[in-house]
Design goal:
about 10% strand, globular, binds ligand PTJ, alpha/beta, Rossmann fold
C-alpha cells in the first residue's frame, strides 16, 4: 500500500495515484477545483491512448528537449495541476535544461500563486518566478495575462503543460516557441503549439528530462536537425489515429479484453 491507500497491484494504480495527487492539491490550496475536471478529461483521453507514451509522443518529447537546450531563455510554466502531479520532475527538468520555473495560472489568486511557489521550493526549486506579474501577454483578460518581465515575457521557448487554448494562442502570437503537453490532440493548445506532446504530464516531463540528458553533449547543429525534422501536424494525426482506431488502447494492451475498472 502507499500513502494514498491504493495497492500497487490494482490494475489502475497509476491513474488512481494521479487522481489522489490532484485531490491533495485541491486540499492544500495548490490546484483549482477546475483542475479536478481537467484531470477527469485528461484521464479519459489517456485511457483511449492506452495509458502509455506513443512513439510519436516520445519523438515530440525529444524535440522538446532539443528546443529547451537550444533556447536563449527557456521557461517551464507551472499551473495547479502540474504542481500537484509532477513537482519534483519539473524542478529536475528545469535544472537539467537551465530553465526558469514560472507559476502561471488560469484561475490566478495570490494565495494559490504563493502556495505553488512554496510547494516548488519544498521540492527543491531555488528560484520560482511568476509572483511579480509585472508584464502582460497582450490580448488576454487581466488575471490570465500576468507574467514576469524577466520570465515568460522574456522567454524564447516556453513549456506550457495543460494550457488553455486562448493563452496558448496569445503566447504563440508573441513569437515564442511553445511546447504544449496535452492529452487531447484536438485541443486548441495542442494545435497552436510548435511542439504538441500528446502524453500524460506524469510521463512526459521525466521523458523530456531523460532526452535532455541524452542530448547534453549534442552540438547545436545536431539539436537543430532534430528540431527541423519535426512535423507537429503528423504528431497530432498519429495521436488522433491511435485514439480513433484503438490500436494502442486498453483493448489492444489487454489482448482483446478491455479493462472495466
Ligand atoms: O491551475 P490553473 O488555474 O492554471 O488551472 C489549470 C487548468 C488545467 C484547470 C486550466 O488550465 C484548465 O481549465 O484547463 P482545460 O481547458 O480544462 O484544459 C486542460 C487540458 O489538459 C485538457 O485538454 C485535458 O485533456 C488535458 N489534461 C488533463 N490532465 C492531463 C492533461 N494533459 C496531460 N496530462 C495530464 N495529466
Amino acid at each position: 500500500m502507499t500513502d494514498v491507500e491504493v495497492p500497487e497491484s490494482h490494475p489502475r494504480y497509476d491513474s488512481l495515484r494521479t487522481r489522489h495527487r490532484i485531490e491533495a492539491g485541491v486540499e492544500n490550496g495548490i490546484t483549482s477545483k477546475q483542475g479536478l475536471i481537467a484531470e477527469g478529461r485528461g484521464e479519459a483521453f489517456d485511457y483511449l491512448l492506452g495509458e502509455r507514451t506513443l512513439p510519436s509522443a516520445d519523438a515530440a518529447e525529444r524535440v522538446a528537449a532539443a528546443h529547451l537546450l537550444l533556447a536563449r531563455h527557456p521557461v517551464v510554466s507551472v499551473n495547479g495541476n502540474v504542481a500537484a502531479l509532477v513537482p519534483d520532475e519539473v524542478v529536475e527538468l528545469a535544472t537539467v535544461v537551465g530553465a526558469d520555473l514560472e507559476v502561471n495560472l488560469f484561475n490566478r489568486t495570490d494565495e494559490r500563486m504563493r502556495a505553488i511557489a512554496n510547494h516548488l521550493r519544498d521540492h527543491g526549486a531555488e528560484e520560482v518566478k511568476g509572483l511579480a506579474g509585472d508584464a502582460r501577454i497582450p490580448g488576454l483578460d487581466h488575471a490570465r495575462a500576468a507574467v514576469d518581465a524577466d520570465g515568460i515575457a522574456d522567454a524564447d521557448v516556453v513549456l506550457v503543460p495543460l494550457e488553455d487554448g486562448d493563452r496558448a494562442e496569445a503566447l504563440s502570437a508573441l513569437g515564442k516557441t511553445e511546447i504544449v503537453v496535452d492529452l487531447n490532440p484536438l485541443s486548441r493548445s495542442a494545435e497552436t503549439a510548435a511542439v504538441p506532446i500528446v502524453d500524460n504530464i506524469v510521463r512526459a516531463v521525466p521523458n523530456i528530462t531523460a532526452h535532455a540528458r541524452d542530448l547534453a553533449e549534442a552540438s547545436p547543429a545536431e539539436l537543430e536537425a532534430i528540431v527541423n525534422g519535426f512535423d507537429p501536424e503528423a504528431a497530432l494525426r498519429a495521436a488522433e489515429m491511435a485514439i480513433r482506431e484503438g490500436r494502442s488502447g486498453p483493448r489492444a494492451a489487454t489482448d482483446g479484453h478491455a479493462k472495466h475498472d
